[in-house]
Design a protein that fits this description.
2 copies of one chain form a homodimer. Chain A is 35% helix and 22% strand. By secondary structure, the first copy, chain A, is an alpha/beta fold. The radius of gyration of chain A is 22 Å and the shape is globular.
Amino acid sequence: MDKLRLGIIGIGNIGSGHVGNIISGQCPEIEITAAADRRESRRAWIRERLPGIPVFNEGEELIASGKSDAVLICVPHYQHPPLAISAMRRGLHTMVEKPAGVYTQQVREMNKEADLHPELAFGLMYNQRTNCVYRKLKEMIDGGELGSLKRVSWLITDWYRTQIYYDSGMWRATWAGEGGGVLLNQCPHQLDLLQWLCGLPVRVRAFCHEGKWHDIEVEDDVTAYLEFGNGATGVFVTTTGDAPGTNRLEITGTLGKIVCENDRLVFSRLAADEREWCVSCPEGFKKPEWETFEVPTDGENPQHSGVLNAFADRILHGGPLIADGREGIRGLMLSNAMHLSSWLGRPVDLPFDEQLFKDMLTERCRHSRHKEDADITFDTAGTY
Amino acid sequence: MDKLRLGIIGIGNIGSGHVGNIISGQCPEIEITAAADRRESRRAWIRERLPGIPVFNEGEELIASGKSDAVLICVPHYQHPPLAISAMRRGLHTMVEKPAGVYTQQVREMNKEADLHPELAFGLMYNQRTNCVYRKLKEMIDGGELGSLKRVSWLITDWYRTQIYYDSGMWRATWAGEGGGVLLNQCPHQLDLLQWLCGLPVRVRAFCHEGKWHDIEVEDDVTAYLEFGNGATGVFVTTTGDAPGTNRLEITGTLGKIVCENDRLVFSRLAADEREWCVSCPEGFKKPEWETFEVPTDGENPQHSGVLNAFADRILHGGPLIADGREGIRGLMLSNAMHLSSWLGRPVDLPFDEQLFKDMLTERCRHSRHKEDADITFDTAGTY
């Protein structure tokens, strides 16, 4: 293979963005050889840009066509696992947009299928893992520079969306169509990064507010309290209703505090381990000495193209993926646990009762509102 | 009266600080004319600094002595309301250190007594209300510059204390002696400022961790989720276990976001009301325009001396207090509600069941640990 022959399933907001990146030359080892969308308007859009490639109505048709060696799945979340399973059964390498799915049971099926095909590349579009500040932070945490985790606080309230955003697609922001709101659509990145950096919490208490800032039935405002296995705690606050909003991640360990905001990492590094200092210092109010400085990074942030290029590299040359598809379930566990905690009005331990979550979600889907499809596709550049 | 004749009851960490401020000339209208402490070591300390003034063992003796026209009450929290009530009954102007008391029922008694003596000045030592950044913030919020409250987040984790701090006094960090931990001792300032700036929440869900970072029986780590009457939400995170810690208050309204950190106020002011923008903007991802700038203040932060000078001014010249004593109950309601929520493991609505709180506190006092008195007094300059 000279180039990876990629089929794109779903050419909505994000699928169109991938097409744009690839045809503008950002993914030199990838060639789009097929596309699929249920909407004629989107099929016309892709035909105009890539004349001559086969364009299908259904993802399953693309998968069965043999026109590509890999698929990129960019359809509404519920369809991620079934399409990925079909693709892997047909021997296709598979890249799935976030979230991995809507509920963990369906994602477990997808992961089980992936385990049957170790020869296939299976990745998740966690493009924010390519950001130099998060990569550097991961390296520092794994290298022990923060010591043991004590506290994490992520205010991620800059996912602003207007009402027309929610009115733009019939599946958007409905239980039946999307399966959730800000936790399912905007926050899978941060939920993945949180578990990637700090590990999965063992307990979650979340307060999800549905339709608080928009005329939608799902949550657009969430505050969650987290407890980790070693006793560390955290808060995770998100919304699509705040402007201009904040994206500030603070992690405190026994060796200091690091703040990630405005694409900068600022580390306050202690000269002593706080846990040892606390019991040995002869003064009542004195903190260990510390120095605060900005942590240099490599400045690289290749985002979606970076994830796709690593995917192609994996298939063509055996290199590493940015995020193995099987890891997608972890952020979704966190998201599902937050929903479940809010629905039950009590803390939820992880792993949680996945059947109960599914049942409660299904009940919501049964009363999900019908929306007219406005068939609007936005340019999402710079929004993720 | 030329000068206010002040009696100081309690010459521990904070009382000694007040004495130092006054004798160094920071309170030109105040003269210390009496002092009281139960510890001989502290009585010796004050005799050395103010030879000739009457020094009592008990606050009640000072109050009955007629040696002062006002008292400053700096004893362990439980004794604040009974001493204040005695002082007011004797016709003494009364300034009470924070917190107003340990449980709201006793503070209601104190406030009831104050209502019987409108001629007396009754103030609370909320010295952080004198800080120019909080005064400016209050002015901006009250002036409508932020619009309606949407979200507040206060990370106040820079109240670091070592183990020896807790070992320094037998009343410290015990249910029977202090009635709580970081919420009762360090955070009354922020709890007061929070209610002063944003109003009291109507519902609280808190997670208080007792003895998490220190060998103490009360909480030294708290995460609380707040709901306000208009639907706004908040988080309040505090601890005495983090170093270097953070003090970052962020308030978002419909007209923008303001962040108070490192003694700076940074305002991101929207060009349009977000609530109107959300439903009228024809684009899906677009925020209203905004400008971010540092808000100038008058730079003044007279702290404890400022509170005492206003108290003297009130008595001598009829000026305004920094904080009326009756307002002390509001921060305490918040603190009590957080404790109660954590003890019950569920959200607590305000006003809460004050008898239930008292009963649950009393039960904890019954099993409170006995501590040896190390009789250590710290220099607290710069720690509040």
